[in-house]
Specification:
By secondary structure, the protein is an alpha+beta fold. Helix content is 37%, strand content 28%. The strands form two sheets. Strands 1, 2, 3, 4, 5, 6, 7, 8 and 16 form a nine-stranded mixed beta sheet that branches. The chain has a seven-stranded mixed beta sheet with strand order 10-11-12-13-14-9-15, sandwiched between helices.
């Protein structure tokens, strides 16, 4: 392989190439694969790039006949604060190597690390998928994922919630909250406002609004927003992704009034029913860090967490990039960020957050 080759050929006659994101055959292959996620789709990779200013890459493995046998979407993350990393995929919880063949997975992982070195990255991250062995460290003790089949109808969905949490949900349903679902400019603006407030309370910088807009635009009918309001006052909003029968609430925000109103409970319950009505069979609550309140909250709905496995590789003599806000090194920064006025946090946050990935 030359220093700037975009193709890698293995002994098994598997060719790995950098592919164009506008190749419709790639999206068709992803949609047909039973273990694919929305984060494998070229539309997601493009949206992340356009919404954050980072660089999209797509590795595709083909057999001797030219048939696609594996895929690895990538985002090249550049940050003055956090350095450079090659991530599969950026701003996602999944999107790692997609293949049925361990040999293909090794070929894609090798090509990924070659790209990381070429671009001066000290870290490469593979989130989920088939994980490589040699040269990579596998971590499965940080995150849990919560996914479960939807019930047969609205009544069954309510009955499936454990008794204690069902009582909280009923209180929310009795509060007369209103529900809107769609992709309008109004919903986009309200969702971003609520999301920005939520991450500020957590002490983390907010992503650029363009990331949310580009995601909605790129995913089309496979993404929408649910908004819960109390007397015309927005209290909870969630941007969800839909993929091959699975609904994934992904970016959620809420006001200070949400807990007392149980509007988060109302939002997720209505979203479950909305997802079923549009043909979904599975509700993926997404990932939460082990031992945190969000993980316990999802379990109280009747969802059990399954460990997520990620693979990380770092350059010799270098520590792997760490952007986990729960890490000890960030605790003081998180507390300081919480004290910033919301307006200043929203002004500065996107410039920092676009480098987190």
């Amino acid at each position: 392989m030359t220093a700037h080759s975009n193709n890698w050929t293995t002994a098994d006659r598997i060719t790995v190439e950098q592919a164009a994101l506008d190749d419709a055959s790639i999206d068709a292959w992803v949609m047909a694969h039973p273990r694919s996620t929305p984060f494998h789709r070229p539309a997601w990779v493009r949206a992340v790039a356009e919404g954050t200013g980072q660089t999209p890459l797509m590795l595709v493995a083909r057999d001797a006949s030219g048939k696609i046998v594996g895929l690895l979407p990538l985002t090249l993350i550049r940050s003055l604060l956090f350095g450079r990393a090659l991530v599969s995929t950026g701003f996602s919880v999944d999107g790692g190597i997609l293949t049925d063949d361990p040999a293909v997975a090794d070929a894609l992982a090798t090509a990924c690390w070659a790209l990381a070195e070429r671009h001066g990255c000290t870290t490469a991250e593979l989130r989920g998928g088939m994980l490589p062995d040699l040269g990579w460290s596998v971590k499965n003790d940080t995150y849990l994922n919560f996914s479960k089949p939807l019930a047969a109808d609205d009544a069954a969905q309510l009955a499936a919630v454990p008794r204690k949490h069902r009582a909280e949900l009923r209180k929310g349903l009795d509060n007369g909250l209103t529900v809107e679902i769609g992709r309008s400019e109004k919903l986009r603006a309200l969702h971003y406002s609520l999301y920005a407030r939520s991450v500020h309370r957590l002490g983390t910088p907010v992503f650029p609004r363009t990331l949310f807009d580009k995601t909605l635009d790129a995913m089309g009918n496979d993404a929408d927003i649910i908004l819960i309001s109390n007397n015309n006052d927005p209290v909870t909003a969630t941007l969800s992704l839909y993929h091959n029968g699975t609904c994934m609430p992904y970016w959620q925000g809420s006001s200070d009034a949400a807990r007392a109103l149980r509007s988060n409970e109302v939002a997720y319950f209505h979203l479950m029913n909305h997802a079923r009505n549009r043909g979904c069979h599975t509700f993926d609550f997404g990932r939460s860090k082990v031992g945190t309140g969000p993980a316990a909250w999802k379990k109280s709905w009747g969802w059990e967490g399954v460990p997520l496995s990620y693979a990380v590789r770092s350059a010799e003599g270098q520590d792997a990039r760490d952007v986990n806000p729960l890490s000890p090194q960030y605790r003081r920064k998180v507390e300081l960020w919480k004290k910033l006025p919301l307006g200043i946090a929203n002004l500065l946050g996107p410039h920092i957050a676009r480098g987190l990935g």
